Amino acid sequence: MTTEQPPTAKRVPHERVHHGDTVADEYFWLQNRDDPDTVAYLEAENAFTTAATAHLEGLRETLFGEIKSRTKETDLSVPTRKGGYWYYTRTEAGKQYGIHCRVVAAAGQAAPPEIGDGTPLPGEEILLDGNALAGDSEFFALGTFDLSVDGHLLAYSTDFSGDERFTLRIKDLRTGEDLPDVIEDAFYGSAWSADGSTLFYVTIDEAWRPYRVWRHAIGTPAADDVIVHEEADERFWVGVELTRSERFLLIDINSKLTSEVLVIPADSPATTPVPIAPRRQGLEYSVEHHGHRFLILHNDGAEDFALAYTSVDAPGDWITLIEHQPGTRLLQVDAFSGHLVVSLRRDGLTGIRVVPLHGAAPYDIAFPEPLYSVGPEANLEYDTTSFRLHYVSMVTPDSVYDCNLDSGELTLRKQKPVLGDFDASRYEQHREWAIADDGTRVPISVVAKAGTPRDGSAPAVLYGYGSYESSMDPWFSIARLSLLDRGVVFAIAHIRGGGEMGRRWYDEGKVLSKKNTFTDFIACADHLVKAGWSAPERLVARGGSAGGLLMGAVANLAPAAFGGIVAQVPFVDALNTILDPSLPLTVTEWEEWGNPLEDPEVYAYMKSYTPYENLTAAPYPAILAVTSLNDTRVLFHEPAKWVARLRALSPSTDVLLKTEMGAGHGGPSGRYDAWREEAFITAWVLDKVGRA
């Protein structure tokens, strides 16, 4: 640890007044990224973090080398059939980004071509090379990658700063050249008309809300583009997609609680969009096209969702296909000519149900492990009897299977290679259950080196999120092996606010029940200690984004429960952000957190838990906060203010702030840069638990 003194942020008087409550916020000035003092402070924190972790440089290089040596750097994804081609992405050793390719499909070729050693397939056509596009840019991200129905045109978009505002271009794959069409400030997502003459895309407003769907005629200036839908209600986001059947364009309009879907015939792109069902507060639904009907997954009188259909020709009454079953959360339906495939979750695990449409009985696909995650992969063809799925557990690397929908037979197409001496039998995974303060049983997924003693001597990392109904289902990580092999236990707390146990699980961890998220996590930490997996001084908590809010909250509520905390792009100044409707995402977030601007009860409740508001002079565990200057989701000033105030109140706390000066919410964009970032965090964790 460095003997240098950490930076001290200046204090500038500023008051916030709401509902008769006056609060001093002396670090409010850090919100101004154009202030030279702001950048200087962030750079000073980076310099201090570099000095404070200099002793870990050798370990970081070792960890980076372990990740690199276990990863097949030259590799190729399982090709996916679409029309007359097989599409895939490959990587090359030494290159940061993927290369998107296709090969012509042989007549009658049902199975994907063998991918061999990961080098280019015979007859390969490169569609986009991310490395060539990125050039020397410090950051690069691909937003849209969308092929026209005939496979002749490719719409793609690029971001070189991390602010998720993309430049959209169209490439003619017959000539290999970009067309003159260029659209600035596009968002994710696009959709083609049936004949490829028209492209639909989305743009965002000043608050970074996707609110407009546009129609662009290929070969015309962007200035002539037509607004197809503009969403005036600031709670709602819009998106656009083409159905798998390629017969309809769907405009998806969603808030946190309410949905509406508009439909346009793909062969008549200038048609005025028509709603499948009118918007109604609290009604959520999604749409999939299947023959003469639209399939509708909805929560109308169905907390965990049901499946219905309505007529394509005259959308109206909904006729039930799958009844609501409490405790079985229906997540998604994929329609094929002869089958429906329903993704679901039950008892804290994901599942796949196949519904044949020719008289055979529905069936659930069975999997052998007690803990796993399963879900659909890319399934681009409508007229097929093969369904591609992704399967993974905490000890089984990511695996791609093709399921014969008629027989249920699974064919393994690829399992992610793990080089070196990896042997899954050297690790064990377990499902544990913690008891929350109100008696609720909270699932925990645990993975450890086989034979790890349960006497409290092992260090552990407890990961959590718990917001937006997003589930942290079990996953495999090559980088995690460096922890496990050093005797560190890794656990995931499936806390309320997520969706692991159905819609009720989400509802009990939001708005005026949000504190359940934090107390559930603390209960999971206590359970790991009581079960002998670890001890408080050897337990590190980790979370990012809304999971960073979780980290800040538990640091205040139970600092003695953890030996360290990793907070990545953390939402730690939540109340100030949700009070400011001019900031990105604030208005859309009110249905998740409540509206403290208008509701005094919500204001008081958020103030009682938001991390920045509740820092004290008490000792805290060691904290590593990681953020990005160009993040548009959780602005950089939140962790910057949090760290500045924490230092002032508790100067003895070991706290570091690391800011990526050229990245966005997801951190570094290149895979090697991402590995180095993970090695940095892992080294810090190992140092705190005595395994460096």
Strand-helix topology:
Elements: E1 15-18, E2 21-24, H1 36-52, H2 57-70, E3 75-76, E4 80-82, E5 85-91, E6 99-104, E7 125-129, H3 130-134, E8 141-147, E9 153-159, E10 166-172, E11 177-192, E12 198-204, E13 210-217, E14 226-230, E15 237-242, E16 248-254, E17 259-265, E18 274-275, E19 285-290, E20 293-298, E21 306-311, E22 319-322, E23 328-335, E24 339-346, E25 349-356, E26 363-364, E27 373-376, E28 386-392, E29 399-404, E30 410-415, E31 427-435, E32 441-449, E33 460-464, H4 481-484, E34 489-493, H5 503-507, H6 515-530, E35 539-544, H7 546-557, E36 564-568, H8 574-578, H9 586-593, H10 600-607, E37 622-628, H11 637-649, E38 655-660, H12 671-688
Parallel strand pairs: 33-34, 33-35, 35-36, 36-37, 37-38
Antiparallel strand pairs: 1-2, 3-5, 4-5, 5-6, 6-7, 8-9, 9-10, 10-11, 11-12, 12-13, 13-14, 15-16, 16-17, 17-18, 19-20, 20-21, 21-22, 23-24, 24-25, 25-26, 27-28, 28-29, 29-30, 31-32, 32-34
Helix pairs in contact: 2-12, 6-7
How many helices? The count is: 12
Give the N-to-C terminal Cα separation.
13 Å
User: Which band does the percent of strand residues land in?
Assistant: 25-35%
Write down the overall geometry: globular
The biggest beta sheet, please? 8 strands, mixed
- What's the count of strands? 38
The portion of residues assigned to helices is: 10-25%
Identify low-pLDDT runs.
none
Give the strand order, joined by hyphens, for the main sheet. 31-32-34-33-35-36-37-38
